[in-house]
Every structure is written in structure tokens, then in C-alpha cells.
Specification:
Helix 2 (42-59) packs across helix 3. By secondary structure, this protein is mainly alpha-helical. The chain contains 4 helices and no strands. Mean pLDDT is 82; it is low at 5-10.
Length: 152
Amino acid sequence: MGVIPTQTATQAVVEPIKNDGFFPDLSVHDFSRDMRLDIPDDNKRIAALKSAMYKVNEDLAPLKRPDEPSATLTSHITNDVYTSDRLNHLYFMAVFNLAKALLIENYRDIDTHRQGHEKSDQMEPRALDYQQRSRENVRQLLGKPRMTVELV
């Protein structure tokens, strides 16, 4: 007979990760909730989020306008389809998916026993899926199609 917890454990409040002012700040709590993380170590989540944030910010650098230093991601709204909520959502999903892929890749290295090796083989496609979703969100923010196909 197992014990069923009736309350969730209280989590320490982690400050939002400050971004560069153009892109929105990131919440570790939102990342954990949206990506269904059960990793108890906030430091690993923060490290993955920062790495993903730097990469996505680099990929989205063409959106920044050097002549407008006070511009933000949501100041790029050009039509009714791309609202500020949608742009922020796409940005968060690009960062969160990449961060989750980084966490999965890091956790694959922990267990070297047979069962751990088999589990890591199952996790690899999931990490690739999260990376692909991140790239798709970045491309959508840049106004590019999901993929480019060329005849060879």
C-alpha cells in the first residue's frame, strides 16, 4: 500500500531570468509547469534555460533594430495575426523546448547500466523533437517557412 500525497511540495521562489530588454524575461516556474519537469534541482533548470535563451536570442538577432534601442519583441507586430501574446508565446516555446532538449541530453549521460542505456536510446528522439519544435518557433518568429526544400 502506497502513500498518496495530498499536497504538492512547496517550491522555493526562483527569481525570473532577466533577458536583454528586447526579449521577455523567463520564469523558471512557468518553464517547469509548461514542460512538465520533475527535476528538483533549480540550478540545472536555470542553466538549461540560460543556455537556451542565449541560443534563441542569437538566432532571433535579425529582429532587433539597432536604430530603436527601446524596441521589444512585441513592437514588431505588423498584422492582426501576430499579437503580442502570440509573439511572446512563440518566443517562450522556442526557449522552453530547447531548454528541455538540453536537459534530456544531460540526463542521458547519468546512468550507464543496461536499463539506463536503453532508456537513453528512447530519450534521444524526444530531445530531437524538442529541438525541432524550438527551430520551428524561431523560424516562425523570423517569418520563414518551417522548412526549405530544394531539388537536387
